[in-house]
Design goal:
With 327 residues, the protein is α+β, with helices and mostly antiparallel strands. The chain has eight helices and ten strands. Strands 1, 2, 3, 4, 5, 6, 7, 8, 9 and 10 form a ten-stranded mixed beta sheet that branches. Strand 8 and strand 9 (125-130) form a beta hairpin. The protein is globular, with a radius of gyration of 19 Å. The protein binds 2-acetamido-2-deoxy-beta-D-glucopyranose. The site of 2-acetamido-2-deoxy-beta-D-glucopyranose has 5 residues, from helix 2. 2-acetamido-2-deoxy-beta-D-glucopyranose (NAG) is lined by residues 209, 211-212, 321, 323. Residues 1-24 form the signal peptide. Pfam families: Pollen_Ole_e_1.
Amino acid sequence: MDWRQKLVLTAFVIAVAAIDWAEAETMVTGTVFCDQCKDGQISLFDYPLNGIKVLISCADSSGQISMSREETTNLFGNYVMRFDGTPDLSNCNAQVSGTGQGSSRCSAAGGPAQKLRLMFRMFDIEMYAVDSLLSEPAEPMSFCPKSRNPVPAPARPTRPAAPIAPRGSPPSFRFPPLPPLPPLPPLPSLPPLPPFPPVPFLQEESACPHQNWTMPQYRCYWRALNPDSKVAVVFGPIAAARYGNDMTLWGSLQGRGDPYKTLLREATTSLLNSYNSLEFPYHTIGVITHTNLALRGSTRNVLVTALRFMRANSGFGRVPCKLTPCK
Ligand SMILES: *[C@@H]1O[C@H](CO)[C@@H](O)[C@H](O)[C@H]1NC(C)=O
């Protein structure tokens, strides 16, 4: 295993251990965005859609639909579907199937269906992620940049069925390709996992900006994360090279004034939000992966990722911050 896989696994173990699951269970999560510019990808103009229906359908070996289920997205544009047991969902697709009651101006057409990707299977728990689904308005919005190099329709090449191995790539956003990096030195063995408080995830929508997380009255919400944990340990060696070995998570929340400090502040905030609410648009592992991808890219990548985290942490102006003072 290279360090990235270890990191992925660690984060998933943390995430799963924090959930109070006793029975075998399978969970599928994903997000629907309004592709306002109709460019087939998620840009800064795009926003998560709530009240959109997503249909998951599975075909058996003869191509007949053997199972389907529909769920509606929440305020974060997220949907979560749970299945009893651990069925094999690798032959299932997710697609936008309707707009529900939301009279969205972004419901003229749905983007392509996406395959379910197994991200994780352990202790009778399976987790599948779905790449972001898109819904489009009838016409691109007037403020959209005139396409210099038009993006072809988001035709998805049929993916080979093979790579269903656990993978770290997060479901939510597609980044422009980044230059390849020299091989990374192996990570020294990972530190022991933090002990898990018995508090389960909040099964509600909540997103809190960074200011809230430094308020002493909410200290008990730090759950699995210790404020004194080192950024280098939580985010890995690329972050260590950028922020040094002494920066703590608490310290990272104070950062401001340059894109890199802003990225780390918002990433730590998203990490806290992801632990606190199962509904938060980023999984714990997604936060870590996106942060690392951004740090390997240009300053623009850093800024764009910081902005995305910031928007999610602000609840996109719709989702409240649900914290009550600790006793
Ligand atoms: C979170 O912080 C914001 C800005 O400081 C504040 O307006 C809001 O009341 C805080 N929310 C909670 C739940 O403390």
